[in-house]
Batch of 2 targets.
Target 1
Amino acid sequence: SSAEYDTDVIVVGTGPMGATATLALATYGVRVQAVTRWNWLAPTPRSHTTNQRAVEVLRDLGVEEEAVRYATPWDLMGDMTIATSFAGPEIARLRLWGTGDDRHGDYVQGSPCPMLDLIQPLLEQLLVTNAARRGAQISLNTEYLRHEQDDDAVTVTLKDLTTGRVYTRRAQFLVGADGARSQIADEIGLEIVGHHARAGHVYAAFTADLSQYVAHRPSTLNYIMNPATGYGEIGMALLRATRPWDRWIAGWGIDLNGGEPDLDHGRALERIRTLVGDPELQAEIEWVAPWYVNQAFALCYSNGRVFCGGDAVHRHPPSSGLGSNTSIQDAFNLAWKLAFVARGFAGRGLLDSYSKERVPVGKQVVARSNQSRFDYSALREAVAVPDCDDPTAARLEKIRARTPEGAKTRAALYEALKLKRYEFNAHGVELNQRYESSAVLPDRLTGEEVWARDPQLYLQATTRPGAKIPHAWLVDERGRRVSTLDAVGKGMFTVLTGLSGEAWVNAAQKLDLPYVRTVVVGDAQHQDLYGYWAEIREIEEAGVLLVRPDGYIAWRISGAVHETDKATRLLRNALGMVL
Ligand code: FDA
């Protein structure tokens, strides 16, 4: 019983992975203690692009509205300029993250949630304070030292850094959300393949009112192609708003073979003035720090009672904006499984599905975000100029030349920009995860999934087991729009059928399980007035979907079933296999 343990789950780390796991576990009614060695949460902005799937997780956990309040809104996120300086001529523009007219419909059709620019300190605050409100213990200034596991428990040794006291806690499970230098991943012997410190950057955070440069082309992310900062595979400097439009981070590549990077504040200010294109710019530098690009992932995420996630198991650059998004989704995949086992609803075998499902995602994310960096070479080459006194003038002349050569340059530039869709409008990369594991029962009758469009760029909504339930707007009894995603999740399995699926309703009633709810699309709370659900559900009205707490489809019966006994047998069997 849970009384034998000091707590059910200990989470090491309060970054996006640890904080999401802690919030979800507390929401599901599991006892959880999260520890971080620091006095507070992430002190610097770090990750910020929060994709729709991550916001869907926040929505399920009941904190989406609060996230929207803290975040820079979607419509200010993505009219990205590539310019010679903020004040100077532009080379190109890109509409990012589904803000462009060509992609916006796909994004809003695919999810009830917006993209958000939510900087990491605010994201962590949101997650951790809500977790604490829901009963999680949050131990700041607490260092994880080591753990031991046996058949029944994991014993974790912690050190209270305010007093120096070392103490142990017995828990059912340990979550290693301890970041890119994960000690826990090491200790449990996770094999990590790839490269570390493949490239390097300097970030300089500063305060300056730059609204005059972005008010007419709002974007929290912008690139500057300028000889002051040409080093590295991106070959451009970054100007990223962390609060529109007066708090910023400037970033530039460093030469890993060139000795220690230059972190001098005075020289950083000079560089920022060049990037902005205002030699008189009044800016206050807050900090200057280097960071390094990794390309590595773990082949397995768990060992016994210990589960790693986030940067502990996948390490990659910020390009494509997948860092904290992937960490949030690792946590959301893991949390309900831990909760189900801790509460006795499922056997320990369910926990093996975490690694099985998330390893392929981590691997893909590491490859994609590194590829996004390599893909800048086409852009650089398209507008490259020979060494000269004024490369910026030469570059503009080349791009604007009224000659056949000029036409070739422009054609190459537009081709290079197209490649960037795979970084900035990769809706499929963000939402098309498919899970294969013991917690998903594949259709016996349907073959391999056929992708109608480019799976990286376009979301393919499907109710195939292993996919996330598609979003469709339904209408509740008060006439308000609710998403199919709102009808499922929140820590429970959902048996989802239609008005003529009475047999499934009866079956769920017969099984009478505390962790299963029934949703009938078409009833007063879930009216399919638009007919959207009927169009995308891929099953007959009296068929059924069994949707997991994380919104993924565990199992479906496409054909109509009208006999309660048969439905009961099938449903009992499916739940038994999954859990
Ligand atoms: P994360 O590293 O956030 O958290 C680790 C946690 O473990 C911390 O709370 C730490 O205190 C704790 N911990 C570790 N060891 C411990 C111990 N022994 N005892 C107690 N606590 C311990 N990503 C992105 O997508 N876009 C971006 O622009 C950037 N930019 C960026 C800049 C900089 C400077 C950094 C360092 C990182 C980024 N990232 C990023 C990466 C992004 O921050 C990263 O993907 C997520 O923070 C990963 O979240 P995790 O929760 O896995 O680890």
Note: The mean pLDDT is 96.
Target 2
Amino acid sequence: MSNALEVRDLSASVGDKQILKSLDLAIPFGEIHAIMGPNGSGKSTLCHVLTGKAGYEISGSASLDGTQILDKAVDERARLGLLQAFQYPVEIPGVELETLALEASEEREMAGAEVRILEAASRFGVEGFLRRGVNHDLSGGEKKRSEIFQISVLEPKVALLDEIDSGLDIDAVRRVAEAVEEMRSPKIGMLMITHYSRILEYVTPDRVHVMIDGRIVESGGPELALELEDGGYEGLKKRLGISAVRAPAATKGPSEFFTDTPFDG
Ligand code: ADP
Ligand code: MG
């Protein structure tokens, strides 16, 4: 059986800056993998490249349930079953969450959308904003729940969760993490990206990968997250004999953090 997601020797650059350096990653169906890494290590770039954001020079391959995706358009990848929950979910005033979920279900030719939407809305506590603009004036935790709700309705084969815990208070992190665990199923492989291990108190990933400076430098079980909790990335680097590679500070301007979608460019 194919893996939900399989990435081979994937590199990506912008101009002469290489961001991803020969990444390999395989997520079987039914598993949740975590990628942890300091700021600026390339975690979001990996999501962007997989979803098809323009502007990167790419080599290597990535397949979703056995189908190569890197040569496909963003919407084709989505129809094949790829979904990204954004680190910074965009607000779409004027488009109701329910309408988005209905239309997207229709695109994916899913039966019984109305019922499934209501069920998922109550399961993930988004009934209150089904009729509001997507993410419009929602709190951080509500935005993340809205993303989880969309994953649950659309049943992707691969969900990329980019810092699904960022900006949340501890109760919201727990709720979001429990929702991720609830979605675990043999029909989906999930990649959860985080730079704090606290969310991993509530979700138990099958594998944890550590990304530093565009490379996966170590993979292991949940105990790897505990090691990071104790010794930080510096401790891990010391154990691996990686000399003081400082992850470069983010070079993005503040406004770019609010255009984190694959649709520009
Ligand atoms: P992470 O999500 O791990 O914090 P990112 O993938 O956002 O890291 O960024 C990795 C590195 O690549 C950072 O140094 C960032 O500034 C840089 N980067 C990302 N996108 C671009 C771009 N379009 N142009 C130049 N540098 C970029
Ligand atoms: Mg990021």
Note: The chain has one domain: 5-258.
